[in-house]
UniProtKB/TrEMBL annotation, chain A:
UniProt protein name: Transport permease protein
Species in which this protein is naturally found: Lentzea fradiae
Entry's transmembrane regions: 33-55, 61-83, 113-132, 144-164, 171-191, 238-257
Domain ABC transmembrane type-2: 27-264
GO biological process assignments: response to antibiotic
GO MF: ABC-type transporter activity
Subcellular location as annotated: Cell membrane; Membrane
Automatic annotation (TrEMBL), chain B:
Domain ABC transporter: residue ranges: 6-236
The species this protein was found in: Lentzea fradiae
An annotated GO cellular component: plasma membrane
Ranges annotated as biased composition (Basic and acidic residues): 323-335
Region (Disordered) location: 315-335
GO biological process, one term: daunorubicin transport
Protein name: ABC-2 type transport system ATP-binding protein
Length: 267, 335
């Protein structure tokens, strides 16, 4: 078997194991199923009713933000899962077996991708119930979901680095939130960044989360004339900017996570 | 000439602040059981991690089944089985799932992994518990799954890192029986342990490691002979008399007497058995020290350990507190 085939084959076996675990830990189930439902409902009814925009649906604008926020939050599992497996010695057991050295990371990121698919399905159903609609073609909608998943996958590798650097599983979640909270909120997820103070506005405009959110809104036909995307290049060319961001994140963080992994386990 | 299953020469492994292995040498002959004995922090686990390709040595050479662990770790992983405190099982998976997962990662294929998992569950008397998650297993059952996990690929060299640490005596006996069967079937086994009794019972040869170096290597009898002589052992009724008793007994000893507070004992190395017992008790009696027990015996592995390393072996597993918690657990699995 080729090296890549082996890495992916072992990765899939390990991903299956991770998913089995997720389904058996109530806390993890909560975060990947219940949280998306709650976020969708809360944001749709609380913010959706607080911010009244005559004639247009704020819910539609808002829900893509909820989708992006949820997959970003889900990426925390990548880091904490890795840290936990290393701490408990599970990774050592795997490493004493003739598997590809990349398969632990591949397995973890694949299972988190599957986890995101689950969350998205749940959110779509909840979203449809509260009045969210896709106003574009099937192809564009599919592209939107694909973009969402691709971004989530790339982000998993970023958070893998956090998990492998911090190592104590209890600390990983907190450290991760220090990264993803600003990423989620200094962005166009819930409001237009036009009104942000200048520094925050620039950060929001160049935040990959903003580009992805804008691109998915465009693909779903959920843009709203009352919430213009802003004039910055990544928001005017959101799809291109998103794809570029995803490529950059993968190119930087796949090797980075791999070297962190080697360091973390070689003790 | 016998072939060596494990050869380590001049192995050095340093961490930021400690030198875990400091020119460590070891040779384990094929088809034999080697007990690697040493106090906590002596380098046992580091040695095991190097042999199992989990970490690379800074210098020195290690071959397992004739394969260099640094040059070809992948090939080493094909022929070893590792189990013990640092290679864990998955609590959220069932016994069957754990073994099947290992089989899949050994590339036995879906069918092969399934068949082997079932075979091992049968062999370790876990068929009934196969569908339960490990979380619900007792300590002893968990150890058996762990052991079975190391055997999935029928390894040429089996490495068990403290296989019975933390188990109560009954589970330990059961684990020993299981290991004994493996040994009978001809596997090469490297076993690290803190328990002298375990080494004495399972190992053909014993290697003692301390401060990252091999300090002794031989059969249990050879090691006992190496330490030599006999031991006069007296138990006192009052712990307060220990220092006094040591001073009283020192003149008849062949070496420094050692006292142990918890069981109020003094052990004195003596050259020959004749007359020592009476003489020792007489001296203590004259000094007004009350003796509850006295005997002269051959050195035990404990004495060997003490003589070689300067401290007593960790006996926590025999009467320590950590065991009691496990004992109750063994009777009634946590649900």
């Amino acid at each position: 078997m080729s090296a890549v085939g082996l890495a992916v084959g072992d990765g899939v076996v390990l991903a299956k194991r991770n998913l089995t675990r997720t389904l058996r830990v109530p806390d993890l189930m909560m975060s990947s199923l219940i949280m998306p439902i709650m976020s969708t409902l809360l944001f749709a009814y609380i913010f959706g009713s607080a911010i009244q925009v005559p004639g247009v649906s704020y819910t539609e604008f808002l829900l893509v933000g909820v989708f992006v926020q949820t997959v970003v939050f889900n990426s925390v599992i990548t880091g904490s899962g890795l840290a936990e497996d290393i701490q408990k010695g599970i990774v050592d057991r795997f490493r004493s077996l003739p598997i590809s050295p990349y398969s632990v990371l591949i397995g973890r990121t694949i299972s988190d991708l599957a986890n995101n698919v689950l969350s998205i399905v749940v959110m779509v159903v909840t979203g449809l119930l509260v009045g969210w609609r896709v106003d574009s073609s099937v192809g564009e909608a599919a592209a939107g979901f694909l973009l969402l998943l691709a971004f989530a996958y790339a982000l998993s590798w970023v958070l893998a680095v956090v998990g492998l650097s911090v190592r104590a599983p209890e600390v990983v979640t907190n450290a991760s939130f220090m990264i993803i909270m600003p990423l989620c909120f200094i962005a166009n997820t819930y409001v237009s960044p036009e009104g942000f103070p200048s520094v925050l506005r620039v950060i929001a405009e160049w935040n990959p989360v903003s580009a992805v959110t804008q691109a998915v809104r465009e693909l779903f036909g959920n843009t709203n004339p009352d919430f213009p995307p802003g004039a910055a290049w990544p928001l005017q060319n959101a799809l291109l900017a998103s794809v570029l961001w995803i490529i950059v994140m993968l190119v930087v963080f796949v090797p980075f996570a791999t070297s962190r992994y080697r360091k973390a386990v070689a003790r | 000439m016998m072939t060596a299953a494990i050869v380590a020469r001049e192995v050095v492994k340093k961490y930021a602040s400690v030198t875990a292995l400091d020119g460590f040498d070891l040779e384990v002959a094929e088809g034999t059981v080697m007990g690697l004995l040493g106090p906590n922090g002596a380098g046992k686990t580091t040695a095991v991690r190097v042999f199992a390709t989990l970490i690379q040595p800074d210098s020195g050479q290690v071959e397992v089944a004739g394969i260099d662990v640094v040059a070809n770790p992948r090939a080493v992983r094909e022929v070893i089985g590792l189990s013990g405190q640092y290679a864990a099982v998955d609590e959220l998976l069932t016994g069957y799932e754990n073994l099947e997962l290992i089989g899949r990662l050994h590339h036995l294929g879906k069918k092969g992994a399934k068949a082997r998992a079932e075979e091992l569950l049968e062999q370790f008397d876990l068929t009934e518990a196969a569908g339960r998650r490990l979380k619900e297993y007792s300590g002893g059952m968990r150890r058996r799954i762990d052991l079975a996990g190391a055997l999935v690929r029928r390894p040429k060299v089996l490495i068990l890192d403290e296989p019975t640490t933390g188990l109560d005596i009954r589970s330990r006996e059961a684990t020993w029986d299981a290991i004994g069967e493996l040994v009978a079937s001809g596997s090469t086994l490297l076993l690290t342990t803190q328990y002298l009794e375990e080494a004495d019972r399972l190992a053909h040869r014993i290697a003692v490691i301390d401060h990252g170096k091999l300090i002794a290597n031989g059969t249990a009898d050879e090691l006992k002979d190496q330490v030599g002589g006999h031991r006069l052992e007296v138990a006192l009724s009052e712990a307060a008399d220990l220092d006094h008793a040591r001073a009283v007994l020192a003149p008849i000893g062949h070496g420094e007497p050692v006292t142990s507070h918890e069981d109020r004992r003094v052990v004195v190395p003596v050259a020959a058995a004749g007359g020592v017992l009476v003489e020792g008790v007489r001296r203590l009696d004259m000094a007004g020290i009350e003796v509850v027990d006295a005997s002269v015996r051959r050195p035990t592995l404990d004495d060997v350990f003490l003589a070689l390393t300067g401290h007593r072996a960790d006996k926590a597993g025999q009467n320590g507190e950590g065991v009691k918690a496990e004992e109750t657990k063994d009777e009634e699995p946590v649900r």
